[in-house]
Structure formats: C-alpha cells, structure tokens
Amino acid sequence: MIMSQTQTKRPSTAPTPPVFELIEVEQEFSVPQPGRSLFNRDTVGLKALDGVRLSIAQGASLALVGESGSGKSTLLRVLLGLDAPSGGRALYRGKPIREARARGTGFARDVAMVYQDARGSLDPRMTVGQLIAEPLRHFNIVRKGEEAARVAQLIDRVGLPTDAASRYPSGLSGGQVRRVAIARALASEPSVLVADEAVSGLDVSTQAQLLTLLRSLQRDMGLTLVFITHDLGVASYLCEEIAIMYLGRIVETGPTDAVLDTPAHPYSAALRAAAPRFFEPIPEPLPGEIPSPLDLPNGCRFSSRCPAAQEDCRLRDPQLGQQGAGRAVACLHPLTSTGAQASETR
Amino acid sequence: MKDMVTQPILSLRDLSVHRGAAKILDRVTLSLAEGETLALVGESGAGKSTIATALMRLLDGAKVEGSAEMTGAGDLLALSERQMVKLRGRRLSMIFQDAGSALNPSYTVGRQLITVLRRNLGLSKAEARSRAIELFTSVGINDPEGRMSAYPHQLSGGMQQRVMVAIALACNPDLLLADEPTSALDVTIQAQIVRLILAQTKSRGASCIFVLHDLALASQSCDRIVVLYAGQVVEAGPSRDILERHRHPYTKQLKSCVLEIGTKDITAPEGTVPPHSEMPVGCRFATRCPRALPRCAGEAPPLQPARAGADGPLDHHFACWNPE
Ligand SMILES: Nc1ncnc2c1ncn2[C@@H]1O[C@H](COP(=O)(O)OP(=O)(O)OP(=O)(O)O)[C@@H](O)[C@H]1O
Ligand SMILES: Nc1ncnc2c1ncn2[C@@H]1O[C@H](COP(=O)(O)OP(=O)(O)O)[C@@H](O)[C@H]1O
Ligand code: SF4
Ligand code: SF4
Ligand SMILES: [Mg+2]
Ligand SMILES: [Mg+2]
C-alpha cells in the first residue's frame, strides 16, 4: 500500500517495514546550461526527481504512471540502488538502498528487474537456456545437476515453447524475448519484481498473454510488483495501487480503481480522459507542452497546463497530502468525486 | 458514417506480396471512399505496414501483384517510378511510426519542410518559408519560427510527430497513410496527434488509412475497420459492425484483448501466428481458432457479406466457415 504523509507517521513498532520507502527523494543531474555558447561551460541542476514520497508494502502491486520525462525511469534507478539520490532517503526494508545493495548479493537476488529494452538486455551470443541459467548460477540457486531441470521449469512457467532453451534471442519474436527477460528475472527467486514498460510496443494479443502471465505470477508467488507504464488500462488490470507522476513529483497516489474512477488531481483526470475508449469522441487534449524541468512554472508545477488552475496556484507549490481513504494528492483545489472542484482551498 | 454512393478514391484489388516463398499478403481487397478514414488492425506481422508501403511503392525485394486504382492517378502498382515521384507527397503521403528515424537528423526540421514545399509546389524560398511557418502553426507547434531551426533530436517525440504530420500534409494530399503514428507516444500526446490528423484531413476532404493496434482508438477515429490476420483480410466493415457485431472469431479475440480502464478480465489468446512455412492452406487462423471445424485447415473460406444484399464497398464482410 502507498501511504500518504500522515499515514507514514505510524508507530515504529510496526511489524515489518515496507519493502521500499522513499522520503523526500531528490535526484539532481547537472546539465549544460541551455543556449550556452562555446565559451560558456556553465552547468545547471536539473531536478529529475523533486520531493518524491512513496511507500511500497510487501505483496503490493504498484503502477507508476506518467508522461515521458516525468521521472519514472530515474525513480526506478533509485529503487534499484543503481543511483544514489542527491537528496532525501531511499530505504529498502528500513535500510538505505545503496547500503543494502553494497552488502552482498541479497538485495540483487531479492529485487529483480525487467528492462524496457528486453532484446538489448540479453547477450545475443547466448542461448535462451544459457541466459536463464546465468542468474541461477550467479546466485547459487540450484546445484549443477538440477540446473537444466530448473531452466526447463522456468521456460515452461513463462509460456515459452519447450525447445526455446537451445534457441538464440535473434530467432525469437518480441513477445518471446520479453518472456525470456521475465524468466531470467524470476530465476533468482525474488520477492520484488520491477518492470519498466514491460509490455509496451507489443500488439494487443501478445500484451494480453504477458499481462495474464504477470498477474498470475504476482498472485501465485506473492511477488511485490512495481510496474512502470503509460497505459492506464494496463495499470488498472495489473496493479492495485497507482502513483501518478508529473515533472519529477508524485501528484496523486491511492488504490488504482478509486484514483481512476474519481481522480482528484486535474492531471490524473486529463490522463484518464486521454485514454482511448470505445466510440467516445477523442477529448480536447491538455493545452501546451510539458515544461522543461529546468523551467518549472511558479507555484504548482502543473499550473501552466491545468484547466482548473486558480490564482493561488501560481503562488503556492502544493505538497502531497491525504485525500480520503488511502489516497493522497498534491493539488490546492482537488477535484471532488463528482468531478467538480472543492470550493475551499487547502 | 459515409454515404454509400460516395466515389471510392482508392480501390485495392487482390494485392498479394511475396517475399521468397512466403506470401505475406494474400489477395487483399479493400476500398476507400472520398473523405473516409479506415483502420487496418491485426497482430504484429499481419501485413499492415506492407499494405501501406506497397501503396507508396516503397517495398523493396518483394514481388507485388494486384491493382490499386486511385482516382485521377491510375493504378498505383503499375505506374513508373517517375510517375510515382510526382504523386508521392502530393496526392498521397505517409506518416511513419517512428518519426525520429523518418526525419533526416542532419537538417533542421524547417529546412526539411521547406525542401518538400519547394520541390512539390515550386514555391520560392520566401514563399516556402512562410507557408512552412503556417503549417507548423496549424499542427500546434508553439514558437513555429524558432522551431524551424531545430534539429529533430532537439524535439520531443510528440513534436517530431507533429513535424511529420506537417510534412505529410504540406501539399494537401488526397490520401494520407499513417502507420501507427502514435504508438511510441504518451496517451495525452497520442490524443493530440490523432485529433490533429483527423482535423487536418477532414478539413481538406482527404481520405486516411490508419494502421493501429488499439481497437478503442480505431473506433474513435475511423469510419471503417479492416481486420487482417497473417496477410489476409478476415473481416471488414463499418467500425460499429466490426466491434459490436463481428462475425469472425479472430476479430472477437482481438477485441477481448483490449484493456479499457477498469477491465479486470481479459482472455489471452493461445499461441502465436504460425510461421509462413507452416501456414495452413485453408483458413490461416485454423491453428488457433476455438471454433475450427474439420474443413477449416484445408479449405480457405471466402469473404462473404454479413447481411443479405450487403455488397457495396462499405459493407460488412467476413471470411469464416463457422462464424460467431
Ligand atoms: N523487409 C522484409 N523482409 C522480409 N520479411 C519482411 C520484411 N518486412 C516485412 N516482412 C514480413 O512481412 C510480414 C508482414 O509484415 P508487416 O511489417 O507488414 O506487418 P505489420 O502488420 O505492419 O506488423 P507490426 O504490427 O509489427 O508493425 C511479416 O511476416 C514480416 O516478418
Ligand atoms: N543522466 C541524466 N542526465 C541528465 N538528465 C537526465 C538524466 N536522466 C534523466 N534526465 C532527465 O530527467 C527527467 C526525467 O527523466 P526519466 O526519468 O527518464 O523520465 P521517464 O522515465 O518518466 O520518461 C527528464 O527531463 C530527463 O531528460
Ligand atoms: S494546484 Fe492548481 S494548478 Fe496545480 S493541479 Fe491543483 S488546481 Fe491545477
Ligand atoms: S474458418 Fe474455421 S478456423 Fe477459420 S476462423 Fe472460421 S471457424 Fe475458425
Ligand atoms: Mg523511461
Ligand atoms: Mg507495421
């Protein structure tokens, strides 16, 4: 479950810490100043993440949703301990993620990743069998004699044909390559599976096959799932919880169905409206473009495109605050369940 | 929905494409009325892009049969390359799935658009420039003058796709082919681009063929849908007939995979499209079809009208021995 600000202050006697907890996480990259000349080598800080607060409990399934450039992949790198955040705290079962990662193979074994570019993440010179055996060996999962049987089991579990073990990635379709990536991720017997756009770019039939597979894996093995997608249909099918990002910040979180039924943040509402629906007219899109993180609007970062913006939105930067059961929103004038705006400011 | 008597702008008859021993398109027949939008849908590898590319005559290394009569242009498949050069960009143009790689990385987007305008419309440099700025404005590019001097890599995916739309529409083509113009983009940008293409083609009375994966998006944007499976048309008709009164088991399967917000149950299809070397001689869907009969694998079902008397070009047809 994701907890809003108030819920995170629960007593420290809580039985198990969440799998992941992000507290005011910032990630600042230094980039060349825009429009610089040859002689001016000044850099400026680009905040790809700016005050992210998130808690992911054991067994949860969380969809991370947002437009391109909103910081999803950057957030994932922090969760995986690939990058240390430039500010705030990023915890894995109560310990800093970077420390957990540095301390032996436990973290890498427990938290498995399926990359967006599945084909690029696989060595083309290795057979599927070798690719799946690699993590088995690396983490000492089975004895040498049992390796082939375990590889066969994994191949079967992800729905690859039995003869796949002897084939090379180049001979596999896009959907099959993703299955190999999932089999490799499952090989280390992780409790957390993190996936970046694992089904995007596939046709609907193949996507449906992979999604039913992922859902059954999540349910049968009690996996904690963190799933990046920009498809709200996928989020609503696969994940109980959703976190919607805009320009480096989570602007709304809560149970997926509740958030998508009655979005409280105008940006969530816009995303929802833009998702294709049978025979509905395509709605008026959001005006303008996503601003550059180097040139944030004053006050609320969504104010330059928000159809519900009011005067104070340019003055105050709304923080993620509780909004009903298990939900949180960062907006000064959240929408009510009828789609109207609350009258009083927060 | 379009009037039944509208003249077809394009009439494609028995288009077959062979690559080596594989027949990757098999007697595809379809027609498109003036001002109509049509969606080609189907699994990856079904042949959607091949149809669009064949119409542009940009397929290489393939044997092409059939005819594609376009009003006032003749048979697109029989024209000489010199005649095609005159048509491309002017009477028919194509938007590719991946705008990033369709644009030339070493020229500014303004220069690319100006080149098209000068070559195809014979405009002077100054005329082309002001027309280019107008076009950028009409496709929703902010600061069009400033953006003229941007290189493709300096633009977001959505902006690149807008530039592609501007280039494709520069010469007011009668027929626009859009091959998955938005599948690499976010939903918000996708909605913008699809609306843009529809508004721009409708206002010019142009016709449009969309290649789409998303049936819900097809229903929102297209008058008619053609469903392809393994290189064959298996069902075609007005969007509502295809999505709500489909007769072909494959159309049903495609629809059952669609995830709308709130969908908690989908039926994932079994297996995959067989490789061309193992394609059944009869119905190509027979290896995966839940309704297959003994005759299906050996005998190819012909396209037949879904309703008695339905034989106009806009009507609902399907090819199946044991329809839903
Ligand atoms: N250059 C090529 N050489 C050989 N085979 C090709 C080539 N291009 C396409 N094919 C084959 O032709 C068939 C149709 O491909 P096409 O690209 O038209 O499919 P599509 O429906 O557009 O699929 P997608 O949804 O993946 O874009 C496939 O079997 C494909 O493998
Ligand atoms: N290594 C980096 N150096 C500089 N800027 C970066 C780097 N990684 C990401 N960014 C910037 O951070 C923002 C968020 O990027 P990203 O996390 O990739 O977004 P998403 O995955 O949501 O598309 C973007 O503006 C991106 O350009
Ligand atoms: S704070 Fe104001 S501008 Fe920001 S999302 Fe809410 S209403 Fe819109
Ligand atoms: S012809 Fe037979 S195999 Fe083909 S779709 Fe119809 S029932 Fe299925
Ligand atoms: Mg990303
Ligand atoms: Mg294609």
- Number of discrete domains of chain A: 1
CATH class category of chain B: Alpha Beta
Structural class of chain A: alpha/beta
Strand arrangement within the widest β-sheet of chain B reads: 6-7-8-3-9-10-12-11
Largest interface: A-B, 45 and 48 residues
Q: What is the C-level CATH assignment of chain A? A: Alpha Beta
User: What is the CATH architecture term of chain B?
Assistant: 3-Layer(aba) Sandwich
- What is the helix fraction of residues of chain B, given as a range? 25-40%
Radius of gyration of chain B: 20 Å
The poorly predicted ranges of chain B are: none
CATH topology of chain A: Rossmann fold
The radius of gyration computed from the alpha-carbon positions of chain A, rounded to a whole number of angstroms, is 21 Å
Q: Regions of chain A with pLDDT < 50 over 5+ consecutive residues?
A: 1-11, 342-346
CATH architecture descriptor text of chain A: 3-Layer(aba) Sandwich
Structure characteristics:
heterodimer; A: 346 residues; alpha/beta; Rossmann fold; eight-stranded mixed beta sheet; four-stranded antiparallel beta sheet; globular; disordered C terminus; B: 324 residues; 11 helices; 32% helix; binds adenosine-5'-triphosphate; binds adenosine-5'-diphosphate; binds iron/sulfur cluster; binds magnesium ion; nucleotide-binding (chain B)
Give your account of this protein's structure.
- Chain A is globular.
- Chain A is α/β, with parallel strands linked by helices and 346 residues long.
- Mean pLDDT of chain A is 87; it is low at 1-11 and 342-346.
- Chain A has helices at residues 5-8, 72-79, 97-102, 106-110, 128-138, 147-157, 174-187, 204-221, 232-238, 256-261, 266-274, and strands spanning 20-32, 43-56, 61-65, 87-92, 95-96, 111-114, 192-196, 224-229, 241-246, 249-255, 321-322, 328-329.
- An eight-stranded mixed β-sheet of chain A has the order 6-7-8-3-9-10-12-11, sandwiched between helices. A four-stranded antiparallel β-sheet of chain A has the order 2-1-4-5.
- In chain A, strand 11 (321-322) and strand 12 (328-329) form a beta hairpin.
- Chain A has one domain: Rossmann fold.
- The longest helix of chain A is centred in the middle third of the chain and has 18 residues, at 204-221.
- With 324 residues, chain B is of the alpha/beta class.
- Chain B has a single domain, classed as 3-Layer(aba) Sandwich (Rossmann fold).
- Chain B has eleven helices and twelve strands.
- Chain B has helices at 48-55, 81-87, 99-102, 109-121, 125-138, 144-148, 157-169, 187-204, 215-221, 239-244, 249-256, and strands spanning 8-19, 22-33, 37-41, 63-70, 74-75, 92-95, 175-179, 207-211, 224-229, 232-238, 304-305, 317-318.
- In chain B, the strands form two sheets. Chain B has an eight-stranded mixed β-sheet with strand order 6-7-8-3-9-10-12-11, with helices on both faces. Chain B has a four-stranded antiparallel β-sheet with strand order 2-1-4-5, covered by helices on one side.
- In chain B, strand 4 (63-70) and strand 5 form a beta hairpin.
- In chain B, helix 5 (125-138) packs across helix 7.
- Chain B is globular, with a radius of gyration of 20 Å.
- The model of chain B has no long low-confidence stretch (mean pLDDT 89).
- One iron/sulfur cluster binds at residues 265-266, 300, 302-303, 306, 308-309, 313, 318, 331-333 of chain A.
